[in-house]
Design goal:
- With about 170 residues, the chain is of the alpha/beta class.
- About 20% of the residues lie in helices and about 35% in strands.
- It has four helices and eleven strands, in the order E-E-E-H-E-H-E-E-H-E-H-E-E-E-E.
- Strands 6-5-4-7-1-8-11-10 form an eight-stranded mixed beta sheet, sandwiched between helices.
- Strand 2 and strand 3 form a beta hairpin.
Length: about 170
């Protein structure tokens, strides 16, 4: 099963104008620590928004796009391009069953995996803020999830908590 990792606010906003709403050092370090050596699954727009337009290092990067013609400008040995959630599942089962599988965005991908009942864990950084965004995290029934971990409130300016929710069996 898949894990979702995201930084959202109290209104579930993820981003605005093609950018993340928040860049929090502690959140970025936490993201890196959790995903290193594992698989990150993202949509095309998320991939294209990565620093220097390059895949995340020391991780398997899977790009899910409906564009059958899509390709990346360089050959990277850690990038796979697929065209359906079914392709993601088959690729991960065949080659990456020993790794943690993280869906890292964007909104449409989160929705596809949540609606497909493929996610068993949410790792959310929730910012104590209600700024509007044009991209939001999908609504989900909190009764179907249990809080496994919730950090203390952190941050001097931008305050946030780390949450880990696991799907109830």
């Amino acid at each position: 099963m898949f894990k979702i990792i995201a930084c959202i606010n109290q209104k579930r906003a993820l981003g605005k104008d093609g950018k993340l709403l928040y860049t929090i050092k502690n959140d970025l370090l936490n993201f890196k620590r959790q995903t290193l050596g594992n698989v990150v699954i993202m949509g095309r727009k998320t991939f294209e928004s990565l620093p220097n337009g390059e895949p995340l290092k020391d991780r398997i990067n899977i790009i899910l796009t409906s564009n059958e013609e899509y390709g990346v400008s360089q050959d990277f040995d850690n990038v796979y391009i697929v065209h359906s959630v079914k392709d993601v599942i088959e690729l991960c089962e065949a080659f990456f069953s020993d790794k943690e599988l993280f869906v890292i965005g964007g909104e449409a991908l989160y929705r596809q995996f949540m609606d497909g009942d493929l996610v068993d864990e949410l790792r959310l950084t929730v910012v104590k803020d209600d700024e509007e965004g044009d991209v939001t995290f999908p609504e989900f029934d909190e009764k179907e999830w249990r809080t496994y971990y919730k950090s203390m409130l952190q941050g001097n300016g931008t305050q946030f908590r780390f949450h880990v929710l696991k799907r109830k069996k």
